[in-house]
Amino acid sequence: MLQEERRSNLSQDLEVRISLIPVDITCITLASLFPVLPIYTLPPVRQLNTLTHTCIRTIMTTKKEVLEKTQTGIEYKLQGNEAFQNKDFPIALKSYHLAVLNLNGLDRSVITQAQAQNGNSGVDEQEIKQLVHQANLELSVVYSNMAAVHLKRENWIRAIACADDALKKNPDNAKASFRKASALKSSGSIVKARNLLETLDKSDPSVNQLITQIQASEKAQDVKFNQSFKGMFDRKPASRSNPVE
């Protein structure tokens, strides 16, 4: 009876302590407790919040599961590419979205913690970095492809947003930068588009073509402005043959 009471008190104390831990470190704290505390000392599962459940599941992710999620994400990306080629843009976006769900969130610290929890000491730091880097590269491509779909649908704002997401995962993604510049140009942000294109490889025919289009747009705007400005001084004064008395 006394032992059960101690267990109950310890469980309640741990539950209170967990509830006071900031959200951003709850995962790591729980992970550090698991190896040293008997299972009966943990709070009842039903009393843990949804976020903590998610943290626990994430921490227990294995290298195999990470690789599987990456591969699944790539498969959805390829399905999206096929739909894009067939001009089935809704299906393409759906496939790319599923790819994002699988590739996003494979954070380096979580993977490292997962390996420690599963006792897999055979995975070194460099391999962990490579896993995350590869996932981020694939995720950048997916976001860039989503931008391409939105360009086809003339949804410039979404195209810019997806291109930005792609560049966050891989700042060197030239296609994402080009697609962002295309969306900026189409939305009327000519200067921003030109400045972004200046950072890209000028030997790329697509880049040169878009630069030429932007230059033509700027020239047309200048001509229109000059004509409007000139017209202000070319107007003849109103007839004064019937002055108002």
Task: Characterise this structure.
With 245 residues, this protein is mostly helical. The protein folds into two domains: 2-59, no CATH class; 63-228, Serine Threonine Protein Phosphatase 5, Tetratricopeptide repeat. It is built from eleven helices and no strands. It has helices spanning 2-20, 23-33, 50-59, 63-85, 89-103, 108-117, 125-152, 156-169, 174-186, 190-197, 205-234. The longest helix is centred in the C-terminal third of the chain and has 30 residues, at 205-234. It is elongated, with a radius of gyration of 29 Å. Mean pLDDT is 74; it is low at 10-48, 56-61 and 241-245.
Topology at a glance:
Elements: H1 2-20, H2 23-33, H3 50-59, H4 63-85, H5 89-103, H6 108-117, H7 125-152, H8 156-169, H9 174-186, H10 190-197, H11 205-234
